[in-house]
Amino acid sequence: MRSASRIAFVSWRLPMPRRPRDPGVPSSPAEYFGTELRAYREASDLSRPQLSKRLGFTPQWIGQIESGNSAPSDEFAMACDTFFTTNGSFYRIWEWIQDFGRLAVLPPGFPDFIAREREAEVVYIFETMVITGLFQTPEYAREVLKLGKTADAVEQLVATRMERQEILGRENPPHVVAIFDEGAIRRPIGNLDVMKKQIQHLIELAELPDITIQIVPTTKGAYEGLPGAFTILGFQEEPGAVRVEGHIGGQIVDHPMAVRKYGVRFDLIRASAMTAEDSLSLLRTILESL
Question: What fold does the segment set 25-103 form as a domain?
Answer without folding.
Answer: 434 Repressor (Amino-terminal Domain) (1.10.260)
